[in-house]
Write a structure and sequence with these properties.
69% of the residues lie in helices and 0% in strands. It is mostly helical. The longest helix is centred in the middle third of the chain and has 28 residues.
Length: 214
């Protein structure tokens, strides 16, 4: 195998598949190279370490997810409809993955955060940046909904954090129980978190994310 971009692609694809299936810590460079069908020399030509490879996998996954989130959360639809679209597409993605391999993969970022948050500072820092970016994207939609009077939150930043945490937590439960049925209540839970109103101006029942108590 020559030191080509094709080899780099194979290493990235193999690493992502192995990390999604088994996690990061248990993997070795030799196993990744075997799965990719490349020699170790090719690995170290493209990546100085397993950590560097994991960061590349994370960055590549975020580039795709950011594109999908941007598409879902922008457009002419009402802000809550756009937010709901994000949840629906997340559920559909997990279901497609389960049909493909028999198990719910969960969220690559969430899985790595749980596994490595106290072990690998570089990966932990990158995951923090990604989750903060997700909150930024959701906050812009929540703020728009608040201006329209569609939600009852006062602190849009904390409300957006609650929405992202709800999404991430439910995906984690779907993985734990290997059941995408855990995702069916995502939208109703989100509406409750935001204090969303219906067409008659009634507020959804449940916990409303508010700002800090004085």
């Amino acid at each position: 195998m020559g030191r080509t971009s094709d080899a780099r692609r194979k290493i990235l694809d193999a690493a992502r598949s192995l990390i999604e299936g088994r996690g990061y810590s248990a993997l070795g460079v030799a196993e990744i190279c075997k799965a990719a069908g490349v020699p170790k020399g090719s690995f170290y030509y493209f990546f100085e370490s397993k950590e560097a490879l994991a960061l590349a996998v994370v960055d590549e996954h975020w580039a795709v997810q950011k594109r999908d989130w941007t598409r879902a959360l922008t457009g002419d639809a009402e802000p809550l409809r756009r937010l709901r679209r994000l949840f629906e597409e997340t559920e559909a993605g997990q279901l497609a993955g389960q049909r493909g391999c028999g198990t719910v993969a969960g969220c690559l970022f969430g899985n790595l955060a749980l596994e490595l948050s106290n072990q690998t500072e570089a990966i932990r820092g990158r995951l923090q940046e990604i989750f903060d970016a997700q909150v930024d994207m959701v906050e812009s939609v929540v703020a728009e909904a608040r201006e329209r009077g569609d939600v009852g939150v006062t602190d849009t930043r904390e409300a957006a954090r609650a929405v992202v945490a709800q999404l991430e937590g439910q995906v984690m439960f779907a993985k734990l129980y290997n059941s995408t049925g855990r995702l069916t209540q995502l939208w109703q839970n989100c509406r409750a978190l935001l204090g969303a109103t219906d067409d008659q101006g009634r507020v959804a029942r449940g916990l409303v994310a508010r700002g800090p108590v004085a």
